[in-house]
Design goal:
about 260 residues; mainly alpha; 8 helices; 2 strands
């Protein structure tokens, strides 16, 4: 265990770090921001995450639909998220040239965010819902710590345009809409056909019984806990999560997507 005592960490940034079971005693924390997978956070003796989750649900009611086990709710959630992304895309197109390739505050750009959602779709929908074992889409963007990029079909050197990525997302959206149009509540409750291999996401067939958290998570690094993933859980964990906030600002959409899809 690392111990920090009487240290001045003013303005420090912790990115992609696991701070599970960290204790902060007698600290001064003003104007701080936490973004990631946060559970059981106790502040001055009060567990605050239920309040945070309730506020996020109030701000973005689509989160309630995403967590539903009813096909009609999932179809409505998908419709809302699809419309939100259309609004974001149009806003980006109205901005100065090349804005779609510019990140904000160290987060992914619009194009990088969409490329990551290409990867998320392959990971959670095509693999965990449909049970497919095909290589990932080449232009998909998977974080380097996930797996060997090239062996799994990804092209780290790819530099697609916004229109090229959107064309792939349209095809992927059609796959989801076809599935949502036919899926039943009984099918959502069944065990998902997660392939028995070592590709991402490994925690879809982990060692526990609870569902993978669906709320915002930068890595989803909470212990691997999905022993019997259900199709609805897989969709909510990845495909829907990329847009779960319903933001229409491209910078916020990028931040939310990167923070939600692992």
């Amino acid at each position: 265990m690392r111990r920090f005592e009487d240290e001045d960490l003013t303005g420090a940034e912790f990115r992609e770090c696991d701070l599970s079971r960290a204790r902060m005693v007698g600290v001064v924390m003003q104007d701080a921001e936490i973004d990631g997978l946060v559970t059981n956070l106790v502040v001055n003796g009060v567990e605050v995450m239920p309040y945070v989750e309730a506020e996020l649900d109030r701000r973005h009611p689509v989160r309630l639909l995403i967590r539903s086990d009813q096909p009609a709710d999932l179809r409505e959630a998908w419709r809302q998220l699809r419309d939100d992304w259309a609004t974001t895309t149009e806003r980006v197109r109205s901005m100065p040239g090349n804005s779609e390739h510019h990140g904000v505050d160290g987060e992914w750009s619009m194009v990088e965010t969409l490329r990551h959602l290409v990867f998320v779709h392959d990971s959670w929908f095509r693999r965990c819902v449909l049970g497919l074992t095909e290589p990932f889409t080449a232009i998909g963007l998977g974080p380097p710590f996930v797996m060997d990029q090239e062996e799994n079909g990804l092209d780290p050197s790819a530099q697609p345009s916004l229109d090229e990525v959107l064309a792939v997302r349209v095809r992927q959206s059609s796959e989801i809409e076809t599935w949502l149009a036919e899926v039943t509540a009984d099918q959502l409750a069944q065990t998902a056909p997660v392939p028995d291999d070592d590709r991402w996401p490994p925690y879809a067939k982990g060692a526990g019984s609870a569902a993978m958290p669906r709320h915002r998570a930068r890595r989803g690094m909470g212990s691997p806990r999905v022993l019997q993933t259900r199709p609805g859980q897989a969709v909510a964990s990845g495909v829907f999560a990329g847009s779960a906030s319903g933001n229409s600002h491209p910078a916020e959409a990028s931040k939310t997507s990167r923070s939600a899809t692992f």
